[in-house]
Write a structure and sequence with these properties.
Layout (H helix, E strand, L loop, with lengths): L7 H13 L7 E4 L4 H12 L3 E3 L2 E6 L2 E10 L6 E2 L1 H7 L3 H22 L12 E5 L7 H12 L4 E9 L1 H7 L5 E7 L18 H9 L3
Helix pairs in contact: 1-2
Length: about 210
């Protein structure tokens, strides 16, 4: 399979005309770090909208960290769990507790590093566009939407360059609108759709944010 996008920035640019066509009035753009940031930057610029971060952390199965059994997000007191994954993997409370504690520490670290001195946006009564680099099972996007819903966003839009068709159908009930440039079965991970899908460092992300709207 040939990659659909050269990199995350190109993927973000593919979403700009789709979002512009919706005519959203005074939206806010929220990126899920770190992979969602280079996707969200051209979107925020194209919509002339402020960019903010929404900090989330996936809770990964200990022996298969990429498989998320849940997620936490800033502003959410309780984690979101995927009970199907927990049941299928046989995870117990004793297995879940250390993962949850470690990811809460990581969320606090990211908050201190990423948003120190950053002007945070208030989504109350606003259109909030949540951006990530793709949607497979979507546990982190689910947590992000729940956090924005709790903060009283007037309308929630999930924007991703690539999504599994079943995930789009599922998230239609979680967001007010799901906008995606491409849909395709995701058998080998989101990275298969990108020519460059390198792991973004903190320094690289902060450099990107320095030029954000």
């Amino acid at each position: 399979m040939s990659p659909l996008f050269a990199d995350r920035a190109e993927a973000g640019r593919s979403l700009v005309p789709l979002l512009q066509a919706r005519g959203f009035a005074d939206p806010l753009v929220y990126a899920l770090p770190r992979g969602g940031v280079p996707v969200a930057l051209p979107i925020a610029q194209g919509l002339h909208a402020p960019l903010d971060l929404l900090l989330v952390r996936k809770l990964g199965v200990p022996w298969q960290p990429e498989l998320g059994f849940g997620a936490i997000a800033e502003g959410l007191e309780e984690p979101l769990f995927n009970q199907d994954i927990i049941a299928a993997t046989g995870l117990t409370e004793d297995m879940i507790a250390p993962v949850l504690a470690a990811e809460r520490r990581q969320l606090a670290r990211r908050s201190a590093v990423y948003v120190k001195g950053w002007h945070r946006q208030d989504p109350k009564g606003r259109i909030a566009i949540l951006v990530d680099d793709g949607l497979a099972t979507g546990i982190t996007a689910r947590a992000g939407l729940a956090a924005l819903r709790k903060r009283s966003a007037a309308r929630l839009v999930l924007a991703v360059p690539i999504a599994a068709p079943e995930s789009v159908a599922e998230f239609q009930g979680l967001a007010d609108e799901v906008i995606t440039a491409e849909t395709a079965p995701i058998r080998f991970g989101i990275g298969a759709f990108y020519q460059d899908f390198h792991q973004i460092s903190d320094a690289e992300m902060l450099e990107m944010l320095a030029g954000a709207p």
